[in-house]
Amino acid sequence: MRRLCNRPIALGCLALLCAAACGGSGSSTAAQPPATSPTSPTPSGPVNVAGTWRGSASDSSGPGQMSWQISQSDTTVSGTVTMTDTSTGVSGRGTIAGSVSSSSLHFSVSIPAGGFDSPYASCAATISGDGQASAASITGTYTGSNSCSGSISAGQLTLSKQ
């Protein structure tokens, strides 16, 4: 009878050992994968606006067409601009400089004296503005001044990648 009494104790000890070895009750020394914490998405860099852009522009001086040829180095943009007044056909050629952060674009355009066609060759103009850029389009607003005609206001542009 003594053997029958020890048998349940032996089975109980065996069950505890199996449970501990299998990670049941108690602590386990088996290797656990490291806990991972959720990560936020990696922020994307600035949109690439390098290339040729063409489209419409309209401001207090009237409607026009605009063409930008842009180079980009990280967040800095620069290049050349041609603006054409659609009512007179007069064009101005100058430079653009700015910066891009994610999809936001800040730009400044300068057309020096001599950059406009005759009879406005003695005029100079500058505009600056902000916009949103994607791989296919740039939309924005701007203000500025023209040495011959004064203030430029309510500027809006929509350009498409060529």
Account of the protein in words:
The chain is mostly beta strands. The protein is about 10% helix and about 50% strand. The chain has a domain at about 50-160: Beta Barrel (Lipocalin), CATH 2.40.128.120. The chain contains one helix and eight strands, in the order αββββββββ. The longest helix has 20 residues, at about 1-20. The protein is elongated and about 45 Å long.
CATH homologous superfamily caption of one domain: Quinohemoprotein amine dehydrogenase alpha subunit, domain 2
Q: So how many helices?
A: 1
CATH architecture of one domain, by name, is Beta Barrel
Alpha-carbon distance between the termini? Answer: 97 Å
Say what the CATH topology of one domain is: Lipocalin
Shape: elongated
- Order of helix and strand elements from N to C terminus: HEEEEEEEE
Radius of gyration: 35 Å
| Strand residues, percent | over 45%
Helix content: 10-25%
Category from helices, strands and their pairing? mainly beta
Brief sketch in words of this structure:
With 162 residues, this protein is mainly beta. Helices cover 12% and strands 50% of the residues.
Q: What is this structure's SSE topology?
A:
Layout: H1 2-21, E1 51-59, E2 62-73, E3 76-85, E4 91-101, E5 104-111, E6 125-133, E7 137-146, E8 150-161
Antiparallel strand pairs: 1-2, 1-8, 2-3, 3-4, 4-5, 5-6, 6-7, 7-8
